[in-house]
């Protein structure tokens, strides 16, 4: 059995208003909820996932899948089971994924192939044309050098926020290819917090225990919604440029986060906001996570891809299976804005407005959910539960 290594790194996307992309955004929300809920089964603390990063690299892998393997991957990823439709979707995404506007948004795909290993020409064409991927030959027999080279590429593409995604032990004589997607987002709030207003305030870990954290404060006109169905309030904070935003979903009860998470599919849809003057208090936070995704993907019905039953005959002539899928994520939220990066690895065998009068308060002093969205596509999602 030959092996392939697949790695991804994630950030943000802009979507045109087309049927394919509308369908993708619906699936993107479902996949986000699916992964998040599966992750909760083994996680008690903070959560951070980059669903888009996983979708991109697994969709690229799907381009080489055939038969039942392809069907399971499309279903688990909430994508249409049509190579043509998927290629259309990701061709449009690739065109929109890089942006140097008032925020930084970069995405890159790369396929590292073992010297002399024959990759299917059709797969190469899809990788280059639909996913805008670079293809490079590499000597996997020199495990440290190969890992260092791939990690340097990842680090460069995520401005050094994601490092050491791959260890030399992840590569061996059976490795035939490594597929990588790197995404990075950095944005400034449309209305930044004033640093001098940040002060130590309590963050309640539960109804009784708290810890002092750096709490940022401001008053601004923002999109706000009260959601009785999940007993929570929702606040949308835009970044400069206004097409990327971070949404905070805060339960009214200190221990009410579980109710939000139980209704995650609904929560990830934009509610009917009211633009209103909000007195906002949100803690500064930084979260880093490393996630083994294979058990989660198996729970979502993607099973054959990780076994001897895998059919990746559209990628290479030798039998291949996915050995590992690892995602590393980073998010930092402060007074100026947000930095976010993600790396997912799949190892396949072979301001400035007058202060308005306060109308509501939004004090995130207990566990809450958040997500970063561009257009209608979720880039990052997670929760803050501990410091």
UniProtKB/TrEMBL annotation:
This is Serpin domain-containing protein. Keywords: Protease inhibitor, Serine protease inhibitor, Signal. GO terms for cellular component: extracellular space. Residues 1-16 form the signal peptide. The keyword Signal applies. Belongs to the serpin family. It comes from the Eukaryota. Residues 33-387 form the Serpin domain. It holds the Pfam family Serpin. One of its GO terms (molecular function) is serine-type endopeptidase inhibitor activity. Coiled coil: none annotated. InterPro entries: Serpin_CS, Serpin_dom, Serpin_fam, Serpin_sf, Serpin_sf_1, Serpin_sf_2.
């Amino acid at each position: 059995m030959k092996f392939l290594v697949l790695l991804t790194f994630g950030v943000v996307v802009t979507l045109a208003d087309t049927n394919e992309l509308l369908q993708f955004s619906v699936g993107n929300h479902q996949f986000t909820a699916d992964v998040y809920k599966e992750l909760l089964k083994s996680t008690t603390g903070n959560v951070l996932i980059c669903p888009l990063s996983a979708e991109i690299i697994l969709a690229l892998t799907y381009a080489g899948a055939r038969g039942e393997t392809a069907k399971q991957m499309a279903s688990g990823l909430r994508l249409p089971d049509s190579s043509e439709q998927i290629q259309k979707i990701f061709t449009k995404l690739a065109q929109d994924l890089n942006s140097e506007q008032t925020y930084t948004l970069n995405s890159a795909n790369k396929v590292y192939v073992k010297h002399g290993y024959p990759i299917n020409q059709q797969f190469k064409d899809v990788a280059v044309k639909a996913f805008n991927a670079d293809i490079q030959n590499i000597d996997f027999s020199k495990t440290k050098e190969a890992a260092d080279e791939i990690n340097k590429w990842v680090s460069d593409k995520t401005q050094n926020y994601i490092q050491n995604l791959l260890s030399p032990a992840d590569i061996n004589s059976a490795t035939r290819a490594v597929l990588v997607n790197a995404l990075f987002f950095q944005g400034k709030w449309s209305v930044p917090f004033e640093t001098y207003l940040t002060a130590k305030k309590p963050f309640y870990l539960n109804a009784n225990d708290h810890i002092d954290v750096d709490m940022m404060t401001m008053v601004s006109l923002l999109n706000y919604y009260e959601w009785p169905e999940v007993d929570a309030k929702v606040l949308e904070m835009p970044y400069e440029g206004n097409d990327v935003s971070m949404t905070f979903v805060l339960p009214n009860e200190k221990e009410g986060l579980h109710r939000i998470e139980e209704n995650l599919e609904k929560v990830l849809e934009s509610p009917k906001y009211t633009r209103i003057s909000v007195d906002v208090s949100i803690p500064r936070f930084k979260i880093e996570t490393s996630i083994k995704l294979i058990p989660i993907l198996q729970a979502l019905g993607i099973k054959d891809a990780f076994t001897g039953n895998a059919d990746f005959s559209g990628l290479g002539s030798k039998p291949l299976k996915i050995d590992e899928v690892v995602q590393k994520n980073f998010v930092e939220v402060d007074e100026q804005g947000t930095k976010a990066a993600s790396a997912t690895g799949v190892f396949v065998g072979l301001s400035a407005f007058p202060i308005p009068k306060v109308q509501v308060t939004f004090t995130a002093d207990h566990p809450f959910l958040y997500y970063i969205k561009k257009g209608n596509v979720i880039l990052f999602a997670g929760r803050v539960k501990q410091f």
